[in-house]
Predict the structure of DNA methyltransferase.
Amino acid sequence: MAEETSTATDTTAELQDRMIDALQSVIDPELGIDLVNLGLIYGMSLTDGVATVTMTLTTVGCPISQVLENMIGTAPEKLPEVNNVKIDIVWEPAWSPSKMSRYARVALGYHMG
């Protein structure tokens, strides 16, 4: 029985990794860095073929928010388990440069104090 639980967990972890990989293909057109490394993706889930991406934007009223939503909506659909994508934009916790990966901070020349 423990093996079945482990396999289910491995499958879930593997699916999460593939969803993250898919979202890493979504590049912010203004910054040239993917949304995962920018720290804008807060979570992902998959229920009955619907992938829900919980994310934020760098600013309220982001001028490219519709472009990003369209790009995010198509990236996970490349996975066979995903039939539809729902995007849940949240403002809490607020995004800050500290949410960026080391890669993004170095690429953008951002030095944290």
Notes: The beta strands are 41-47, 50-55, 84-89. The mean pLDDT is 86. The chain has one domain: 2-106. The two ends are 49 Å apart (CA to CA).
